[in-house]
Design goal:
- By secondary structure, this protein is mainly α.
- It has one domain.
- The chain is built from two helices and no strands.
- The longest helix is centred in the C-terminal third of the chain and has 33 residues.
- It is elongated and about 55 Å long.
- The termini are far apart.
- 2% of the residues are buried.
Length: 57
Amino acid sequence: MGQVVSYLESITDSITSANPKLSKCQVAVLAGLKIADEFHKLRQEYQYLDQLLKEAR
């Protein structure tokens, strides 16, 4: 759980540093969008690699 907290803090700190006038709510929404985008990209990569593995068998 500590790694997740550290990861989230790094994202929110990065957003806050780049945009110091944002509210905590805005930072949280942007962090959520960034994490969702990363998840979506990783899921696409996983599906691609899974398909390659199936074709190789």
